[in-house]
Amino acid sequence: MNKNWLLVFIIGLMASCNTDVGNFEIGQDLVESGSKIVMIDSFAVNLSTVLVDSLATSDPTSALVGKYSNPKIGTTELRHYFNVDLASDYASITEFEDVFDSITVKFNYSGFSIGDTITPVTFSLHRLTDELDLLTDANNLDYLYNTSSFSYDETPLGSYTIVPSPSNDSIEFKLDPALGEEIINWLWNTESINLNNDNFLTLLKGFVMTVSSDDDVILGFDNSNEDDIQLKLYTHVVDLTITENTYEFNKTTEGTSFNQSIADRSNTPFSGLKVQSEALPSDSTGNISYIQGTTGVLSRLDFPSIEKIFTLEDRVLIKAEIKLPAASENNYSDLPSSLNFYATNRFNDFSTSNVLSVTSSSGTTVSVSATLVSNYLTNEYYYVADITDYLQSELSDDTYDTNHGLFVGFTSTNIYNQAQLLILNAGSAKNQKPTLNLYFLEYE
Q: Could you give the 3-state DSSP secondary structure of residue 323?
């Protein structure tokens, strides 16, 4: 029987059956007598860690602020930069009538956290001394990156200490009153023709939110909508009665807010993560690899022995399943429910547009997901995914480019909007290393 014809036939058969090979049967009236399914798990899987040089984090849906330390990977600090537009009702601030009361900034919790959430944490807001300017990439698109930075006044405009419990849904802390007076005076003394966002951003270039050096937590704040982060100016007017006014300055529509990542991996196995083109193999990092959102750290999978498939006579690959064990260093209750794969090359180029995907029978394209499997009895936690289409495509011309590989990371949304951490195991024991299970149809 022609092997190529048989491959097409089997793929069609699988599409009409359960994709779990162990759950379907091949009848004698469908294929040649003597055919059977065999599984081989001896193909090597190499796991390494890669640092993407610059990850675009501008206009994220979550503002990330904090500092988190892990003995295996080091310390990660995140800062959020943003600026605000003029309040829509700024013209209502009447000269010599509005009396300044206070100025604050409000943030709404997104629900994301990593680290110690039962110890008080102190946030500080600083005033930028440089304007936030977007950078244009090779595709003529404008971004700011996790490696971008802008100078700011070291003296904070205000600080706020809280215990970040789930019962908190927002924080609002007071800023230096001098800033409020400065804004009001600018509105009173600027000609109406010059009262616009461009000139306002020249006056108030923006802010950066940080935490104190002793804190060990990263929190997320909503940043999807323009009013999720607000600068609020409170005044009152004395007439026959006292009228209290609130002027809200929303996040600018220019998309210049972004999350900055600062990592200290010194004195860890990952201190060599510096250049994107150089991956750190797991055997040089204590047999682990890791993934972390916003920081640009991804794990890479390579299949150095996959070409051996071409030496297998009378066998056709019908399913490829990858298993990735989570290391014991993880907080198992915080493990993400799924992971995505991204095709890459020898330069470790990364783009979310290269996400591994398949087309369903209805014609819908969906990402290939590695799903978390939890065995509470044996304390095993691992991710499993079907990468059949990927390997069949890579092998389709009877050759395999060993420069090709797969990045393992969070979903394309969470890569930019969360700082979740996942450590993968790459040990030598059977249940502590990545495993590629290949299912073949063996025929006579």
A: strand
Q: Is 311 helix (H, G, I), strand (E, B) or coil?
A: helix
Token readout for 38 is: 């065999």
Sort strands 242-250 and 46-51 into parallel, antiparallel or unpaired. unpaired
34 band by pLDDT with thresholds 50, 70 and 90: low
229-258 residue pLDDT tens: 999 999 998 887 888 999 999 999 888 999
Contacts of 363 (CB under 8 A, 6+ apart): none
Q: Of 237, 263, 289, which residue is a domain's last?
A: 263
Running DSSP on this structure, what letter comes out for residue 194? G
> Do 91 and 129 have their domain in common?
yes
Closest Cα partner for 381 from 415, 340, 431? 431
Whether residues 44 and 66 fall in one domain = no
- Is pLDDT at 11 greater than 60 in this prediction? no
Q: How many domains does the chain have?
A: 2
Compute the distance between CA of residue 378 and CA of residue 372 in angstroms, rounded to an integer. 15
pTM: 0.87
Structural domain containing residue 81: 62-263
Q: Quickly list DSSP for 241-253.
A: SEEEEEEEEEBPT
Cα separation of 193 and 183, whole Å?
17
10 and 116 housed in the same domain = no
Integer CA distances (angstroms), 10 to 25, 63, 355, in order:
12, 48, 26
Measured CA to CA, the distance from residue 371 to residue 312 in angstroms comes to 30
Own/partner long-range contacts of 191-198 (Cβ < 8 Å, ≥24 apart): 195/86, 195/90, 195/91, 196/86, 197/85, 197/86, 197/252
Residue pLDDT, tens place only, 134-149: 988 766 678 999 999 9
Identify whether residues 203 and 303 lie together within a single domain.
no
Residues 123, 229 within the same domain: yes
258-264/242-250 β-pairing? unpaired
Residue range 147-193, pLDDT digits in tens = 999 999 999 999 999 887 655 688 888 999 999 999 999 998 898 88
Query: In this structure, what token pair is assigned to residue 317?
Result: 């690959």
Rounded alpha-carbon distances, angstroms, from residue 179 to 3, 219, 251: 75, 26, 17
The two three-digit tokens of residue 132, written as one number: 């936030």
Q: What is the residue-wise DSSP string for 309-361?
A: GGG-TTEEEEEEEEEEEBPTTS-GGG--SEEEEEEE-TT----GGGB-EEE-T
Q: How far apart are CA 277 and CA 275, in angstroms?
A: 6
**Number of neighbouring beta carbons within 10 Å of residue 99:** 13
- 34 with 155, same domain? no
Q: What average pLDDT does range 52-74 have in this prediction?
A: 93
